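Subject: design request, 164 residues
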């Protein structure tokens, strides 16, 4: 992989990788940036292992999920709740204070999900096709569809319980 090609891949996928990392690490921006850096270091180091069996984006997301899950295993006790970085998640000029509160609570609810469910819903929120999520998670497309439906029900209940 040439340096220019890597820069293009980095620029194309960085935003999605950092948002996925933020979702896994309870919105700790410093840790998310470290994890994103680890992801792209692995992409660079293991470029020869990419077998074109799936899209490049799918491969990068799989590396991201594995990197984040590895970090969670290392820091099981670490469960901090940082402030949401609005610039990465949405345009703050378009959001009201109520929407910001809702978004923060939603990420709090997502943080309560199992590691796999958290990964699946974060990829869904990124707009990845469910078939691609299935490839990343190692499930069938039907299983992912069912899981997403159940995860959304859990998140709706969490938001209702908070009366937001």
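Subject: RE: design request

Done. Sequence follows.
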């Amino acid at each position: 992989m040439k340096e220019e090609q890597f820069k293009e891949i980095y620029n194309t996928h960085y935003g999605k990788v950092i948002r996925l990392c933020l979702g896994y690490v309870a919105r700790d921006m410093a840790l998310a940036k470290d994890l994103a850096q680890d992801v792209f270091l692995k992409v660079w180091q293991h470029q020869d292992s990419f077998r074109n069996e799936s899209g490049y984006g799918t491969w990068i997301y799989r590396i991201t999920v594995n990197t984040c899950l590895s970090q969670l295993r290392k820091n099981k006790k670490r469960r901090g709740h940082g402030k949401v970085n609005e610039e990465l998640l949405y345009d703050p000029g378009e959001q009201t204070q109520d929407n910001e509160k809702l978004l923060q609570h939603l990420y709090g609810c997502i943080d309560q999900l199992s590691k796999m469910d958290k990964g699946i819903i974060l990829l869904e929120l990124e707009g990845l096709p469910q078939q691609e999520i299935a490839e990343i998670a190692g499930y069938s497309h039907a299983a992912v569809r069912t899981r997403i439906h159940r995860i959304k029900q859990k998140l709706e209940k969490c938001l209702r319980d908070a009366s937001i």
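The helical segments are 3-24, 29-45, 56-74, 86-89, 97-111, 115-125, 130-137, 141-161.
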